[in-house]
UspA domain-containing protein
Amino acid sequence: MTGPVVVGLDGSPESVTAAWWAAREAVNRRLPLLLLHSWTTQPLDVPIAQEAHHKRLYGQEVLQRTSAALLHRYADLPLTTELVSAPAAQALLDRAENAELLVLGSRGHGSVASFLLGSISLHVLGLAPCPAVAVRADDPAVEAGWKQPAAAERDEIVVGVGRPEGRAADALLEFAFTTAAAHGCRVRAVTALPLSASLLAQPGEDEVEDMAGARLAETLAPWREKFPDVPVDQHIALGPATQVLLTASARACLTVVGRKRQSSHLTWKLGPVAHAALHHVPCPVAVVPSG
């Protein structure tokens, strides 16, 4: 057993959905679950007095109510709760140092916002030292997963492999294959070729795609060997990387994208592909630090 699955919880619908997703993920990965609530960072619409005492009471009630519901469904899940006074973003990043996975809630299509305000949520996703997953409150597959496995039409872990070589690809593929093995899913590895690379339907177009496919196959080979029971599909397509990934995620129960590791907690950056996935892919999205 390694680090826990850490989820930010404030009692809002999106954070509760994230907690259910995180609990199932912890069970499948055989990891403990930590529910974290910052009583100084609560939803703006919480109908309670603003005194510190009432904020702490609200946080305790949220943690107790949610942990009881999760343990009713997953009786053997090692679960702990933590009520902290530190700002939510800092508390999550601190716990992420020793976590296997960090989980945030999202309010649905068009925004990435958990119990943190939107820009702070993106800040956490851009700085977390471990993989971080944004889970949409309106994802029907997540809700179905509380009581039964995900629907058959959502049976793929889609991973965007921008440059199919090197350590950056390895970090993404390790996470994707490990998750697929835990869930009994297939992996769809996606590489986009810019239109210029195909010479716009010139005679060399097929050769360009074949070369990209060969490079991707070479990158996938050690992971196929390490996870022989995980089915794998290669997806090579012409077009902008964002559009190719969104199209390929039609059957995804999880989409995995990467971002560069940051040398300082003062700056963070999510690339255009990660931004597009977080805003438009209907399933949970994992952002994996790499490189």
